[in-house]
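forwarding from the other thread:

> can someone predict this with zinc ion?

sure thing
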Amino acid sequence: MKRLFLLTALTLSSLVSSGCAKEDRPAHNYTVYIDPNFGDHTAEVMEALTTWEGAVAQYSATSPMSYPNNPAANLTFTTIIAYKYCNEWCKDIITIHPATAAIVQTMADDDGYGAENDIIGITFRKYVDDFVLGHWEFSNIYIADDLTGIFTFKTARHEIGHALGLMHKPIGIMTPEIPEQTPEITQEDVDQYFFLR
Ligand SMILES: [Zn+2]
């Protein structure tokens, strides 16, 4: 069973608690650096990103979690094919890298959260809410792309969800078991996106 893993919500600084100010919420617009080493799988990563943009746009009008007075809440990714690894000075940036399944498993094992076996994707996300420096967030995603089939697309789609702040759910694409994922991003997935914003 191929699984996906999340390491998230590592707050660098929380000098102030998150209130309901929109500035304290995750972003709507991200710059995404796609590692050139994806090679032939680059298209699958790009498709995962555009699938997310499309789903958020599709459900924005009907999601009970969306802000009715915030039509600018649609999701947009600006993609750059270049290597980048984010540190704490990245603002609203997602980096996506290919790895072997063995390396991804090692990353999951080493994080101290007691990962299970067959981990094929992992997202390291940081959300910074600093009284002086303001709010920003960034994620480094690693995807096992040495597997046959369409795992790169499905893994990327799921891990991008984590980079957007989403947690695991029993249905939709945020279920951690790849075979149990729905074929498309669901209303519930998008509801979670809006709920966080
Ligand atoms: Zn996950």
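Strands lie at 3-7, 29-34, 76-81, 93-99, 119-130, 134-144. thats all i got for now
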